[in-house]
Structure formats: C-alpha cells, structure tokens
Amino acid sequence: MTVQITAGQFHAADGVEDWRCLYHVVSAYFRTGSLTKGVALVDEIGRLADSDEQQYLSIDLRHAGVTVSLSRRDVALARRISAAARELDIAGDPTAVQLVNVTLDALVCADVLPFWQAVLGYCQIGDDYLADPSRRGPGLGLQQMDAVRPQRNRVHLDVAVPHDQAEARIAAALAAGGRLISDEHAPKWWVLADAEGNEACVATWLGRGSHRW
Predict the structure, then answer these.
(1) CA–CA gap between residue 107 and residue 203 (Å, rounded)
(2) From start to end of 120-182, where are the E strands?
(3) Distances from the Cα of 147 to the Cαs of 104, 115, 154, 201, in angstroms?
(4) From first to last of its 213 residues, what are the pLDDT tens digits of the chain?
(5) What's the DSSP call for residue 13?
(6) Alpha carbons 211 and 209: distance in angstroms, whole number
(7) What is the DSSP string of 26-87?
(8) Residue 188, SS3?
(9) 144: CB partners within 8 A, 6+ apart
C-alpha cells in the first residue's frame, strides 16, 4: 500500500508550483484559452500517465482551461504534467483551483451516513465522509455535534482554497456582506456567515499535519 505524503511534504518539493493541496487532492488549473489546446494537453497527459497513475487522476476539460486533480499526492506525476503544459506553452494558474464539500452536522454520524450514501449513490471514505465515485459532485462530510442546536443551520459548505488565496477569499466574502463567525481554527478553517446566518467554512491544508486530508 502506498503511503500518502503530507500536504506540507508535497508543497516542499520542487517543480510543483502549479499545484495546490485541497483536502485529500492536489489540483492544478492550466489556462489553455481554447478547446483545441485543452484537448492537446489532455492527450499528452493520457500518454505520460501509466495505467496505475490514471486510477487517481481526474481531468476536467473546458474551453478556457483544464483542471487536473490527483487523489494521491504524487510529486513525480505532477511535475510531468506541468512539464507537458510548458511544452505546449500553456500556463498554470494555481489561484483558480478549489474544492467544495457539503458538511452535515449530526448527533450520531453512523445513523445518518447510510441514508446519504444511498440517496447520493456515493462511496464511503473513513467513518464520516462520502465521495462521488465519478468524481463529479462535491463530497459530503459529517461533523459530530455534542448537542442539538435548533437555532443553527445543520448544513454548511466547506470550501477548500489554495493556502495562499485564503485571506483574499475571506476578504471578498466579508466585503460582499458576510461576517466572520470564528477564526479559532485558522489557518485550518475560518467560519463565515451570510447576512441571514447561513454558514460556510473557508479551509486550507495548513495545520492539518498528517491527517488524511
């Protein structure tokens, strides 16, 4: 079994400047400017990634750019993909990646997780997380509550952003009418709310150590 390196170890490596850790994945966005150049990059990635590497490789192709995500923090593969993009004169933009999770507060996670797994058709990862096997939809995480909180929303969004973009994202949210609820756990995450109290967390890999994220 391959041991997953930490996010800190990944970012300390040379040649991965295009990439950012977002929870359990690392992602890069390459601005192609056209579908034709995007297809060329995807075709090149298909040639350089072997069959084992393709098992944890996801590619989202759009007319303006290509998002590449790895569910394993594979420094060597990330370097090869970035090199292929440079050969095609395609620039990476690490500010353009993010990962969105929906988080549900629950008193007994084991009681509600099977329902959400069935209704979403997702696969289970660990004791408290569900993932889309097709890698298209957001993940669903369960967060343990100590007591019922009837005056608080029990569903919120978790938005994982590049660690060097978190402050700008928070500032933009506050300028748009939001408010900071808590920075107790920063830089792991900040809790924000909109004007009516609906909450969202802005998260980074910082402070997570060797945790599975």
Answers:
(1) 23
(2) 123-125, 129-131, 139-144, 155-160, 179-182
(3) 14, 21, 12, 20
(4) 467 899 999 999 999 999 999 988 999 999 999 999 999 999 999 999 999 999 999 999 999 999 999 999 999 999 999 999 999 999 999 999 999 999 988 888 888 899 889 888 999 988 889 999 988 889 999 888 777 766 666 788 899 999 999 999 999 999 999 999 999 999 999 999 988 788 899 999 998 764 444
(5) S
(6) 6
(7) EEEEEE-SSHHHHHHHHHHHHHHS-HHHHTTEEEEE-SSEEEEEESS--HHHHHHHHHHHHH
(8) coil
(9) 105, 106, 107, 109, 128
- State the pTM of this model: 0.84
Q: Give the DSSP letter of residue 113.
A: H
Question: Closest Cα to residue 157, out of 111, 98, 114?
Answer: 98
Q: Which amino acid is at 146?
A: D
